[in-house]
Amino acid sequence: MNTTPSNITLDADALHLQWASGPGQLQADFLRAQCRCTQCRQASVRGGTQHASTPVTLVDASPVGSYGLQLHFSDGHDRGIYPWAYLHELAHRAVADVAREAM
């Protein structure tokens, strides 16, 4: 399955992606919490988090070849690379979470 989105837009609060399977929206705080860079993984293993407890916003996104995006957050963090497949998975997880909360 091709998980490369056909359209990407970014605002301070969210990353908006359009896939063949439909749209996806990922909130900035959620994306920051899902970072899989080495620094964030190490913090997670130690039982903590690497991200700030205050809300963060998306500042920019840089393409990483045809692989995914490097996201830049307002707390200065910009080390995480988010592959298309991972973003697709996160978007589906976010939709499922919203559906569960609505029940």
Protein traits:
single chain; globular; three-stranded antiparallel β-sheet; alpha+beta; 6 strands; 3 helices; 103 residues
Structure summarized in a few sentences:
The chain is built from three helices and six strands. The chain is of the alpha+beta class and 103 residues long.
Report on this model:
It is a single chain. The chain is of the alpha+beta class and 103 residues long. 32% of the residues lie in helices and 31% in strands. The protein is built from three helices and six strands, in the order E-E-E-H-H-E-E-E-H. The longest helix is centred in the last third of the chain and has 19 residues. The termini are far apart.
Low-confidence stretches: none
| Overall average pLDDT | 88
Helix content: 25-40%
The DSSP helix count reads 3
How would a crystallographer describe the biggest sheet? 3 strands, antiparallel
Which band does the percent of strand residues land in?
25-35%
Structural class label: alpha+beta
Order of helices and strands: EEEHHEEEH
- What general outline do the C-alpha atoms trace? globular
Spatial ordering of strands, largest sheet: 1-2-3
Distance between the termini: 30 Å
The strand count comes to: 6
- Based on CA atoms alone, the radius of gyration comes out at 14 Å
Draw up the topology in text.
Layout: E1 7-10, E2 14-19, E3 22-27, H1 28-33, H2 38-45, E4 58-64, E5 68-73, E6 81-83, H3 84-102
